[in-house]
Amino acid sequence: MRIARFSIDGNVAFGAVEGEGPDSLVLDIIKGIPFAEFELSGTKVPLNKVRLLPPVLPNKVVAIGRNYAEHAAELGNEVPEFPVTFFKPSTSVIGSGDEIVYPAFSSDVQYEAELAVVIGRMCREVPRERAKDVILGYTCANDVTARDVQKREKQWARAKGFDTSCPLGPWIETDVDPADLTIQCTVNGEQRQLGRTSDMIRSVEELIVHITEAMTLLPGDVILTGTPSGVGPLADGDEVAVSIEGIGTLANKVIKRG
């Protein structure tokens, strides 16, 4: 099931996305929220008549750095012995179609296409064999990074946590195996990244085990699983899109605050 969060006539709701072609997609409005048992209302609205919102509003986004060997190498880093973990605040989250605002304190903002895991229930100290039980589904993410700031500051909080630096969407796919999916990024229609989730150093299950050893994850929290090689700069006016096999495409335009 594809679950979208959207607004229409000033109201916010979740809906199940039905159909295949871009012009034929409709939303069957969900009674309740997707983090508990819910029913489809049978009330349907065309997707092109609503505004897509970030599929969740996470309490926290837990991100993993250097989880693809070729990406670590392209930035001159070794594969870490343990996962590199950092946070992106909830205020960094935007949806598909929203604008990435180039921060005034950076001159080198870059894209990073990533598979995002959406947590479906509160969990802590999750054993590997139960990791899939705590997942609601998966979505596309762009771990937008001020690379120059990341290099000069020991903490990554500003470089990766500025407003609009965490696009998520377009929806949550609950029925996909994340083990070997094509993941790509295009800028203005030109392919910049192309990889497979099977190249991740640590799997989704391993990451959930590692993270929940330290902290409780809540329904709607998001894990970013790292990016393949090919990261590069974004400029004012660029259209950047992250596509993941079996999930969909997350698209955003870059602007400078003027």
From TrEMBL:
Keywords: Isomerase, Metal-binding. It comes from the Bacteria. GO terms for biological process: carboxylic acid metabolic process. The keyword ATP-binding does not apply. InterPro entries: Fumarylacetoacetase-like_C, Fumarylacetoacetase_C_sf, Rv2993c-like_N. GO terms for molecular function: acetylpyruvate hydrolase activity; isomerase activity; metal ion binding. The lineage of its organism: Bacteria, Bacillati, Actinomycetota, Actinomycetes, Kitasatosporales. The keyword Transcription regulation does not apply. Residues 60-254 form the Fumarylacetoacetase-like C-terminal domain. This is 2-hydroxyhepta-2,4-diene-1,7-dioate isomerase. Signal peptide: none annotated. PANTHER family: ACYLPYRUVASE (PTHR11820), ACYLPYRUVASE FAHD1, MITOCHONDRIAL (PTHR11820:SF7). Residues 1-55 form the Rv2993c-like N-terminal domain.
